[in-house]
Amino acid sequence: MEIWKDIEWYEWLYKVSNTWKIYSYKSNKEISSIKGSKYLRVILSLNDKSNSFYSHRLVAQAFIPNPENKPQVNHINLIKHDNRIENLEWCTAKENMRHACINWLFSDTIMIKINQYDKLWVFIKEWENITQINASLWYDISFICKVCKWKRKSAYWCIWEYSMS
């Protein structure tokens, strides 16, 4: 069953549904979302000023409680245009990055061994994969992934690289 709620700050101008449709009271019809580079967006106007909003954030703000006041919305199944309520969750930037690193953005590292060295390139340990590092050390693995891809020099006082074995 489709449920509609007014959009905060735009009450009586626009509403959003739990099926991520946006409705304009003024034009008496649904507004189409614009496909941006990554996410669906919608343009809302108030007092002759237009603003762009991520559709998934509007859905989350209307339908998903956020008692910890987390600032970001994560797409659980990694499909950025799937804005169903059951696919969205509030998260911190760190939680969002960890989810991306483990599941998608750095998926090539999940099955690759990683070597850990001190800053003088003295070998410390070979890890089975990035998930093992996270489980053992609780480091923000996005930093380690960036070192492995030469986008950072070091992380956690160490140098990390993909193992060639």
Category by helix and strand content? alpha+beta
What portion of residues is helical? Answer: 10-25%
Strand order of the largest sheet: 1-2-3-4
What percent of residues are in strands? 25-35%
Number of helices: 4
Q: How would you sum up the global shape?
A: elongated
Features:
single chain, 165 residues, alpha+beta, 4-stranded antiparallel β-sheet, 3-stranded antiparallel β-sheet, 12 strands
What does this 3D model show about the protein?
- With 165 residues, the chain is an alpha+beta fold.
- The chain contains 4 helices and 12 strands; from the N terminus they run βββββββαββαββααβ.
- The protein has helices at 55-63, 93-103, 130-137, 141-148; strands at residues 4-6, 14-17, 22-24, 29-31, 34-35, 40-46, 49-54, 72-75, 88-91, 114-117, 123-127, 159-162.
- Strands 1-2-3-4 form a 4-stranded antiparallel beta sheet, with helices on one face. A 3-stranded antiparallel beta sheet has the order 5-6-7. A 3-stranded antiparallel beta sheet has the order 11-10-12.
- A hairpin with a 5-residue loop joins strand 10 and strand 11.
- The longest helix is centred in the middle third of the chain and has 11 residues, at 93-103.
- The N and C termini lie far apart (54 Å).
